[in-house]
Amino acid sequence: MGIMLSGDLIHFQDRKLLSYKVGLYNGQGINVADKNSHKDLAARIMVHPLSWLSIGGSGYSGKGNSVYLGEDSRLPAYGTNYDRRRWGIGTEIITCALYLRAEYLKGEDDVRKSEGYYATASVPVHPKVDIIASYDYFNKDKDLSMKQTNYILGAQYNFYKRCRIQAQYIFQDKQQGMKNVN
Fold first, then answer.
1. Could you give the CA distance from residue 137 to residue 80 in angstroms, rounded to a whole number?
2. What would the pLDDT profile of 54-75 be if each residue is shown by its tens digit?
3. Mind giving me the DSSP string for 53-116?
4. pTM, rounded to two decimals
5. Secondary structure of the chain: what % helix, strand, coil (to 5)?
6. Torsion-angle region of residue 14: left (phi > 0), alpha (psi -120 to 50) or beta?
7. 111 within 8 A of 84, measured Cβ to Cβ
8. Rounded to whole angstroms, how far apart are CA atoms 38 and 36?
């Protein structure tokens, strides 16, 4: 739960040049009640130098509350607060023949350092059908090399504005000795 302000700051010839989002949030994560009274701050700014190109960055600063019950002595004890800091840079390209979005993300949750990146492309092959390909990589804990890579290929049928049916194949390369998943 929280509050977010968003808008466009600069316009030029009927086109937005700069967009922003800034929010103050209360919560542990998606659909999880907050376990501390600290408020988290998130912000994103996007520059639109061309009508089809957006480039920007985001940041997040807050506190989490540990739900970790394992034996990793590096991580905060169950029920204690820890710092969460994250940032990312990304781009988005939107043309009539291609939609492409890519982003690099980096984070620190107490002593756990993470990073990841992804690229997703969508190409229309019919007025209501798109082919989608995506690649994403995430290392949840760089010290323990907790890497996972996903390769996704799919198609979607857009039967109504913002309504679709999608089918996809995902290959998950979990690395670090864990079983890969299809």
1. 29
2. 999 999 999 988 877 776 777 7
3. EEEEEEEEEEEEE----SS-TTSPPTT-EEEEEEEEEEEEEE-SS-EEEEEEEEEEETTEEEEE
4. 0.84
5. 0, 70, 30
6. left
7. no
8. 6
